[in-house]
Amino acid sequence: DIQMTQSPSSLSASIGDRVTITCRASQGISNYLAWFQQKPGKAPQSLIYAASSLQSGVPSQFSGSGSGTDFTLTISSLQPEDFATYYCQQYHSYPLTFGGGTKVEIK
Amino acid sequence: QLQLQESGPGLVKPSETLSLTCTVSGDSISSGSHYWDWIRQSPGKGLEWIGSVYYSGSTFDNPSLKSRVTISVDMSQNQLSLKLSSVTAADTAVYYCASRTHGGPLGYWGQGTQVTVSS
What we know:
heterodimer; A: globular
């Protein structure tokens, strides 16, 4: 199985801050990497696919980068609605696997 | 717009079989345009992919569940189903169905359904 390791597991930030979350795969996955946002009591929502492609309707403050084993999700200017938990997920091979999540909280 | 809705018992007894259904609207499972997945989320284990089914009946499941999983499609009802046998408290989770295109990421998700394993 491909292990996905996210860091940090949580962070505190203020409105307007730039936030960076990293995700590392235990083996190369090319760009088969997605990022999801999840709010309490809701299903995960897709933000980014193919490591850097923004899903339709996702605000432009979100961006993704990376390839191979190391990936980054960046929120350029944190907005109130961005406080949530973020997950990376690889779809390079079965079984599909997720990172442990990063909870973004208000400072 | 593709929509998915999970349904099934919220409480299952230990050692019994968990059975859930996901009803799909906005596309026909028989179109072959999507793979259909089950994912679960528990506080202790985060998000865990359970398995996947294609309209042809081909399935892929997570070896971590030790062959307890059966996933199937009912094209007449435009539904997919999940059966998880010999459940324990560790199977308590929110269960989601989701879809993805071939080689693509999980796209559309259902709202999820809470399943508790308890006597």
